[in-house]
Design a protein that fits this description.
The complex is a heterodimer.
Chain A: E1 6-9, H1 15-39, H2 44-56, H3 59-84, H4 92-110, H5 116-145, H6 149-170, E2 197-199, E3 202-203, H7 205-222, H8 224-234, H9 236-241, H10 246-273, H11 278-281, H12 285-295, H13 303-322, H14 328-349, E4 350-353
Antiparallel strand pairs in A: 1-4, 2-3
Chain B: H1 3-32, H2 40-58, H3 61-85, H4 90-110, H5 139-143, H6 148-166, H7 168-178, H8 180-185, H9 190-216, H10 228-238, H11 243-265, H12 275-278, H13 281-294, H14 298-302
Helix pairs in contact in B: 1-6, 1-9, 1-10, 1-11, 2-3, 2-4, 2-9, 2-10, 3-4, 3-9, 6-7, 6-11, 10-11, 10-13
The chains are: A mainly alpha, B mainly alpha.
Amino acid sequence: MTRRLIVEPRGLASARLRILVPVLSVLAALVVGGLFLAITGENPLDVYGKMLDAAFGSANGVSNTLISATPLILTGVAAALAFKMLVWNIGGEGQFIMGAVFASGIAIWLGPGAPSWVAIPAVIVAGGVGGAVWASVAAVPRVYLGTNEIITTLMLNFIALSFMNFLIFGSSSPWRDPAVSTFPSGRPIPDTAKLPEFFKRLDIGIFIAIALAVAAWWLIGKTRWGFAVRVVGDSAATARYAGIRVSKKILVVFLLSGAAAGFAGALYVAGPVGALDPRSLDLGLGFTGIIVAALAGLHLLAVIPIAILMGALNNAGPALQSIGVPAATVTMLQGAILIFAVAGEFFIRHRIRLPRREPVSVEMPDGVEPA
Amino acid sequence: MNESQLILTMVAAVGLGTPLIFATVGEIITERAGILNLGVQGMMLIGAVTGFWATFQTGNLEFGVVIAMVCASALSAVHAFTSITLRVNQIVSGLALALFGSGLASFLGRAGSEPLVGHPSRAQFEPILTGGIADIPIVGPLLFGHDPLVYLSWLVAGAASYYLFRTKMGLSLRAVGEDPASAEAAGVHVSKVRYVHVLIGGALAGLGGAYFSLALTPTWQDDPIGAAGWIAIALVILASWRPWRAVFAAYLFGAAERIQFTLQTLGEPWSDIPSTLLAMLPFILAIVAMIVLTSGKRARFLGAPAALGIPYFREQR
């Protein structure tokens, strides 16, 4: 009889393991990506070297990496907040877009006359409201009718994208730039509504994103309300026994999750993009947020460094294209990272060991294995 | 709308609905085994690119279809491993598959010294059963003159329906999706059944993807399937996990996708409706149908497999 590996659930995983799993996930994804690169005739090491250089090799590279990371911190927070509560909000993409729509809308409505200390907070708040409103379209049916939110949030992504396209390509809405008639594009928001830049093109949005992530961590981890939320996430039945109003908690967290993605849209519009521009906003940043959250183990502070890593990857795409390697290499790597991170969950949840001694062998009838 | 435009819309809906039938029936089979695979979009794209590539190399359509099914099935094996063997979260694993598949398909279409992107297919599926019978009013163009894969999709839906509800293996499959512990007690190998049906689901998604690149739009482009893989996941619920209903649900969505082109041909005021708004129609339809079908007491009669998405721990029976 061979010695069988014993797989058993473990309680709390060590901090070392929690860091080891994401690191190994990234390395394993690089190996898989390297195989595909090698098959198609590229030298993986050259490609990865180029990516590293594009992301961190120069002041411009670092600045661009942090610009890309800014929205990912918040879409990562959006996914982590919801997933902690077993609310499967896959709609970060749509909530991000609606945040951008609301934020650019308020900036254009306020016009250049409003001072920055009014315009910038208004833009950010509007973004959060836009994201929360869009999340509510899925959250309210989920909480009051039991409608599966996976499908509704997914579908809402495509509706939001079409709506943004309608505002720019399909109508003469206030969002569309009237000065450009040949090819439709978004109307630039007033300079007073734009976030000040401080390092190359990097704006203060990165600090706002980090502050909001810390606030979310504090709210969930350090407050009485957050404790109740965590109880609901662990076991809805326990929460009900404890007198916690479960459906209200789920609704609020769902809306906060939407708001976080909406903030990301606002910071992206008021930061690097400067207009409601479908070509710059349809980048899958909401989906990448799910990768960020999963790789961070749904930890609201771990989201920050992981977002910077993913931002670096996103930022490397155009650099690859310039040397004739498809930019989709980045999406492929990100998908592979997520696959390995999910698989790694197994090792966080379970312990695998070899039995120390030969187990007492019991004669079993054919085909029946000892439990 | 006059009669001929109605017929044209319906014929176009059959074309646009066919890949959705394959993918939806595949996902129904997977979900009936209790495994939720949200990676349909990724599997379809892998099917689309590998099928196109294989036909591009050999000029052989059937070979392309087989390669598409094998490759998409291989991708679904990743999800089978994580969700059945490692028993991790199926939702995140499926999303990972969707992202990886999309990225890899786009990468393969653009990589190498002579990338596929922009090339027309070397062969494409042509209409069959044309001529006399296709000229019968109304019924003719709806039933005849389609490409062979349209008829294959009806066959697949019929076969899946028979398999699920009329065979012993189908019964075991449904038992595994409803109550794996009881199924195992009755002598069914739960993990094996789940693996097999995740792989079948992957193969059918790959076939659906190949329909885009070898029949519907036989040129390789970066984003050849739109949101078909995501819509297929919604269609599973609208079809209430029954293959035959998936056929009608898929055609309904095909028609919703087609309506923007139909309205263009009708002249004012219909042609004034912006296509960007009409593009929302299938997704709004899905949300409304979801809310109506799954809310309150109706949900119980819908027929969702009871163990869908729940990992099965043999040791903790």
